[in-house]
């Protein structure tokens, strides 16, 4: 059995493991669009220029999944949502097992911005990190220029009683330039004390 759930659902979204079972050409069509560079401007992803870029991305995602180093899930709006069944973006959970910490990540196609999907995804991954993986801390971060992520992170971190930890100087490299990272965390104690209802339906996968 896999450590990570291969699929799960929240109120408005369905999540499926991102690996070679995803149609490489459909995903390439998304990640090769000129506007995709704006979508991932503030994270360590870039526009894909050939299907091989997308093929390698899916292969890396599958490898890290098998090694339990990172879980990437494709996100799809459920029935009743605009764009039902369309690929909306990727949700990520990166466990740092030796630090008993989970880092959260996400990117959404621009047409799905402004719907609160980032917070809904975050609540689900916070729940998985503490209840399924028995970790002690959840962390999220954004760069200086990423105001949209700042607002989204502050909203769900506050909802869980978490806090802003501070700035990690020159912590990430984007476009060959070191960038500062603003880090936020939620502890297990804060999670346990928070009165937040989370709707997560896990579908366990096979071998």
Description:
This protein has 207 residues and is α+β, with helices and mostly antiparallel strands. Helix content is 30%, strand content 31%. It is built from six helices and nine strands. The protein has helices spanning 24-31, 36-39, 51-66, 117-132, 147-159, 188-193; strands at residues 7-9, 13-17, 71-77, 89-96, 101-108, 137-143, 163-174, 177-187, 201-203. A hairpin with a 4-residue loop joins β4 (89-96) and β5. The radius of gyration is 16 Å and the shape is globular. It starts with 6 loop residues before the first strand and ends with a strand. The model has no long low-confidence stretch (mean pLDDT 91).
List keywords for this structure.
207 residues, alpha+beta, 6 helices, 31% strand
Give a summary of the structure in a few sentences:
By secondary structure, the chain is an alpha+beta fold.
Strand content: 25-35%
Helix content: 25-40%
Overall, the morphology is: globular
Largest sheet: 9 strands, mixed
**Distance from first to last alpha carbon:** 5 Å
Average pLDDT value? Answer: 91
Sequence of strands across the biggest β-sheet: 7-8-6-5-4-3-2-1-9
Number of DSSP helical runs: 6
Flag low-confidence runs.
none
Total DSSP E strands: 9
Helix-strand pattern: EEHHHEEEHEHEEHE
Structural class: alpha+beta
């Amino acid at each position: 059995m896999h450590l990570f759930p291969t699929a799960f659902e929240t109120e408005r979204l369905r999540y499926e493991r991102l690996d070679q079972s995803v149609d490489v050409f459909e995903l390439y069509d998304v990640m090769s669009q000129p506007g995709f560079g704006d979508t991932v401007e503030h994270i360590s992803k870039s526009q894909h220029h050939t299907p091989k870029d997308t093929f390698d991305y899916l292969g890396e995602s599958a490898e890290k999944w098998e090694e339990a180093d990172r879980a990437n899930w494709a996100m799809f709006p459920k029935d009743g949502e605009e764009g039902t069944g369309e690929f909306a973006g990727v949700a990520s959970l990166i466990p740092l097992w030796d630090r008993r910490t989970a880092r959260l990540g996400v990117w959404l196609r621009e047409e799905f911005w402004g719907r609160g999907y980032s917070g809904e995804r975050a609540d689900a991954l916070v729940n998985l990190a503490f209840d399924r993986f028995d970790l002690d801390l959840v962390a999220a971060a954004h760069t200086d220029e990423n105001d949209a992520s700042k607002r989204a992170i502050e909203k769900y971190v506050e909802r869980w009683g978490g806090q802003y930890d501070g700035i990690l100087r020159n912590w990430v490299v984007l476009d060959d330039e070191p960038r500062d990272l603003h880090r936020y965390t939620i502890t297990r104690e804060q999670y346990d004390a928070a009165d937040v209802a989370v709707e997560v339906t896990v579908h366990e996968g096979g071998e």
